[in-house]
Amino acid sequence: MKTSNLSLALAAVLAMACTKSPSSTSPAASTEPAFSYIKEAELREDLFTLSSDDMRGKRAGTVDELRAAAWVAEQARKAGLEPAGEDGTYFQFFPVSRSRVADNSSVFISGKPANLWQNVWVTSPTEARIEAPVVWLNALADTARQNLQGKVVAMTLQPPTRMPAAGMSLWNYRYVATALRQQINALRNQKAAAILLVTDSTAEADFGFIAHVFEEGTYQLEGDANRQSNSAPVMLAHSSLASTLKHPGAKLAASINIDNYTYPSMNVVAKAPGSDPELRKEHVLFSGHHDHDGIGAAVDGDSIYNGADDNASVTVALLAIGRAWAQQPGKRSALFVWHGAEERGLLGSRWYVEHPTVDKESIVAVLNADMIGRNAPDSAALLGSIAPHRNSTALVDMAMQANEQHTKFIIDTSWDEASHPEGWYFRSDHLPYARAGIPAIFFTTLLHPDYHTPRDEAERIDLEKLTKMTRWMYATGWAVSEAPQRLTTDPDAKLER
């Protein structure tokens, strides 16, 4: 077990965590949201700072994520928000377990070294020692004509029978993942020592991101079921190795070792107390995530995945809403949670739902957002707005009314349909809250071609639209805060998966 040494960074973060927000006297309550406190210039300044190259993409489990979290906490303090994390701080730390193929692993094909992460990729961390002959298959039907037990099965990666929808995000990655899953399922019962699939031209067309995902390994919350595979290892090989693998007498010798790490990640949690003596005990939770993809495969010479839209746009929006709420509080308290490790599988929001820093029953609604600064200036989407994803009609009605009164976006609900190929509803931080039975919605301006690429930079954000989206989210939360009765969930709400 290896544990990353982040003591210096943690010390700096914890020192800041102990600094309280500046004290202020709450002004008189108002029945109208204070839009004047949400300023485009402040959103711009925060956005360009958080998504700058200096932040190095804020990948979960790295010092860069710690640095970004510390910056968010400091801005929350300056905004007048109170710490609402653990031990009187703005932070809630949680352990993230990572498994990856160790650097001392090796792969030889017919006695010649095959370079890991250059022309051979282990698709999932699997410890193995292999010395076995290679059997080349021209088709899956060939498995019926020979005994493959203890041998290395090699063949070309077959296109999936059901291709990813045209225009789908990360299309090549989905193509490879679907093809792998389909082919592995067909080969697993052969009791082979290993499965070696040769990339086709489609897989190789945009392989840098895919290769980086395999090299990074798997992430999970500490205590989750172990995702490290105990089955025969599955590797992808570049098409340049096909002729060697097809040669009679080809052999594979591999020593695959696994490194396991435990990293700290963290949620940043702050609050603005409400103005009503009784209702302030309840919380309207504004949700986003502060991490992104870090340093990865270079695209046009740029290897920093800045994540300006995903999700610095929402991180700075929550800071703006916090400034407004601190200056003019609603009746209920506003709780702000900037989740960590969202990109590694909604880990921060899952952790917070399981270990809330306020009474979970006090959370009356979750207003989550992810990517709110791109695409057509007059369009937006609200997920959790139609069945089977809608779990609170009252909350959806408040959001729609806030838009009609204040921001007047054309609302796209098509991405909320269960049949939509992206499954976008299931890919952001509202999901664990919705599964816990808390009214939840998801604000977004949807995907774009720069999604999860180094091109997602601050210069590409529509700042006027970001400001309007921030105000829509704020106005919705304000309506929830002012409602005489707390919201309820729909009695028949049930997600399809």
UniProtKB/TrEMBL annotation:
Pfam families: Peptidase_M28 (PF04389). Residues 267-474 form the Peptidase M28 domain. Gene3D superfamilies: 3.50.30.30, Zn peptidases (3.40.630.10). Keywords: Signal. It comes from the Bacteria. Residues 1-17 form the signal peptide. The keyword Signal applies. InterPro entries: M28_fam (IPR045175), Peptidase_M28 (IPR007484). This is M28 family peptidase. It comes from Pontibacter toksunensis. The lineage of its organism: Bacteria, Pseudomonadati, Bacteroidota, Cytophagia, Cytophagales.
